[in-house]
Amino acid sequence: MSKLAVALGETVRRERKKRGLSQEALAAIASLNRTYVSEIERGLTEASARNLQRIAQALNLRLSELVRLSESHND
Amino acid sequence: MSKLAVALGETVRRERKKRGLSQEALAAIASLNRTYVSEIERGLTEASARNLQRIAQALNLRLSELVRLSESHND
Question: Looking at this predicted complex, what is its ipTM?
Answer without folding.
Answer: 0.93
